[in-house]
Amino acid sequence: MAQQIAQQLLTGEFELHELSPEASPRRYFRVTGEDLLLVTSEQPPAIECQELLNSCGICSPAYGKCTDGGYLIEDCADTHLSHQPDANNYRMLIEDWHKFSRCQLPARHPNAGLALDAALFKRELQQFVNSYLTEFKQLQFDTDERQQLEDLCDSLANDAAHGPQCLQHRDFHCRNIMLFDKHPRPTWIDFQDMQSGPIFYDLASLYTDAYLDLSDEVFGLIIEAVVDLGDEHAMHSEDMHPQFQLTALQRVLKALGTFGLLLNNGRSDYAHAERRASIFAIALLDQLPDYYDLRKYLS
Questions:
Q1: Do 60 and 149 fall into the same domain?
Q2: CATH number, position 262
Q3: What CA–CA distance (Å, rounded) separates 164 from 168?
């Protein structure tokens, strides 16, 4: 399929080399001799999302030609933030994110009607129960335990969705940030799902990144950003950290649901990410007494 799509988009002779698959159904192929990647996807290129990033001064790969089933995009090489996770790169990333968070999707934008709300969080937490706890960890629950799980997940979904909202990338972690020498600042990718959501969602995703071990300095930068963002949205200081923790817990349990599904399908390359995410989840549960009963299923 990739070869057929490439023939519609490229001229002359070319070779395709598939890159490591990601969690989504999209697949990426490097085009030999060109500064281009071929992306096979049922979804069209997120041109409107890229235009919004450009309006905020945020670097992103340029799109090329497109056709049914795929498109071309600028090849930003292979250096992700995970390869150079130093404080200066995170500082620039957080500065850019603050600019992005103040933007609003135009009414005509295809994502304008989407939201990271309680209904979505409940569906994600149901996948955590089904794909991670039940299928991956192979836990069995009696009627009372299943009801407790359902009640806790519903409550967490509501709590995590509570409070002020702003624009979110929705999958903000080190593998979706490139360090490209032709761009002066970190380059964002996989931004097609940007939408409004709880203000701390992307920062919580960055804090609970399951793909690398962050330094104390970087953790500190993220917490500083949480305080700055809370102040910007007129939150009381005593509410900021608990709300951030609730958002982070929902996000990391959502990630565990995704990792469980991938591991169940033979993607053993996500085993390290699953372990990191479970450690984050347990640490958060130790600080959130209302949800501490979830801890026994993760230990």
A1: no
A2: 3.90.1200.10
A3: 12
Under a CB-based contact definition with an 8 Å cutoff, are residues 199 and 166 in contact? yes
Give residue-wise pLDDT tens across range 113-145.
Answer: 999 999 999 999 999 999 999 999 999 999 999
Which DSSP state fits 76?
-
Tokens 């295809």 sit on residue: 110
Residue 265 CA: distances (Å) to CA of 18, 47, 270, 272: 20, 31, 11, 16
255's tokens: 């990630």
- Rounded CA-CA distance 282/297 in Å is 10
Cβ neighbour number for residue 266 with a 10 Å cutoff: 7
Q: What is the DSSP letter of 19?
A: P
pTM passes above 0.85: yes
Tens-binned pLDDT, residue by residue, of the chain (299 aa): 899 999 999 998 899 999 988 888 899 999 998 999 999 999 999 999 999 999 999 999 999 999 999 999 999 999 999 999 999 999 999 999 999 999 999 999 999 999 999 999 999 999 999 999 999 999 999 999 999 999 999 999 999 999 999 999 999 999 999 999 999 999 999 999 999 999 999 999 999 999 999 999 999 999 999 999 999 999 999 999 999 999 999 999 999 999 999 999 999 999 999 999 999 999 999 999 999 999 999 98
- Residue type (1 letter), 73: I
Does 165 share its domain with 219? yes
Burial class (CB in 10 A: 0-12, 13-18, 19+), 37: buried
Residue closest to 214 by CA, chosen among 109, 89, 27: 89
* Of residues 81, 113, 93, the one with CA closest to residue 53: 93
Domain count across the chain: 2
**E-assigned strands of 175-243?**
177-178, 187-188, 195-198
Range of the domain at 182: 81-297
Measuring CA to CA, which residue among 191, 227, 190, 193 is closest to residue 207? 227
